[in-house]
Design goal:
The protein is α/β, with parallel strands linked by helices. It contains eight helices and five strands; from the N terminus they run H-E-E-H-E-H-H-E-E-H-H-H-H.
């Protein structure tokens, strides 16, 4: 279970921010990045890597944690169009920077250290350490992962209402068999990542894309 070992290691530097993303791999929807600041000596028996939690438990934890006034947090979204423009890795880095900057703006104080799930980032504007599988080690990263994942899941459930037929409420944009079948039948919708395979190979235009239709 994640704990505060890394947070305590940098406690003398001031504010410690945990950062994690959700949604790098899907064919549709945004990359979602959470950033979380926990109070000293914070503990919670159920917080862990969001991928190891059931959807029901993630949702309950999100509701609980988001209402805890001791926790400062933010979520940044990088939409599919921007993912296509800059590639998903750069989009993830941008989302991490934006999420931390949102907290900096709210608090008016720069973080002493950001704990980031994964590898260290090039040109990141804040002091940071990359922690491989950090969402299973750091409590603040695990908390950020819950904020990022649940925010994105809710967005994809809403997208299922706007773009019926794709099953976004089930697979959240990942390339499941049902999703790929829907793509072959319906073609991509506006929240699909056009640079991702197999979408990039599809010749079907977006609805309302007159320029593509005329080719």
């Amino acid at each position: 279970m994640p704990d505060l070992e890394f947070e305590n290691r940098y406690a003398d530097r001031g504010i410690i921010v945990g950062v994690d993303e959700a949604g790098r791999g899907p064919l549709a929807g945004p990359v979602s990045v959470g950033a979380a600041i926990l109070p000293p000596d914070f503990s919670h028996p159920l917080i862990q890597d969001s991928k190891k939690l059931s959807e029901k438990k993630r949702e309950a934890l999100y509701d609980e944690l988001s209402q805890d006034m001791r926790i400062r947090w933010a979520v940044s979204l990088v939409e599919a169009e921007e993912v296509d423009q800059v590639n998903v890795l750069k989009a993830t880095h941008l989302g991490m920077e934006r999420a931390v900057t949102a907290l900096v703006t709210e608090l008016g104080v720069a973080p002493g250290m950001c704990l980031i799930d994964g590898l260290a980032l090039p040109s990141f504007p804040y002091p940071h350490e990359g922690i491989v599988k950090g969402d299973a080690k750091s409590l603040s990263i695990a908390t950020a992962s819950i904020f990022a994942k649940v925010t994105r899941d809710r967005i994809m459930r809403e997208a299922a209402l706007r773009y019926p037929g794709y099953g976004f409420e089930k697979h959240k944009g990942y390339g499941t068999k049902g999703h790929l079948e829907a793509l072959r039948t319906l073609g991509p919708c506006p929240i699909h990542r056009r640079s991702f395979q197999p979408i990039a190979q599809l010749s079907l235009p977006l609805e309302g894309d007159e320029e593509s239709r005329d080719r």
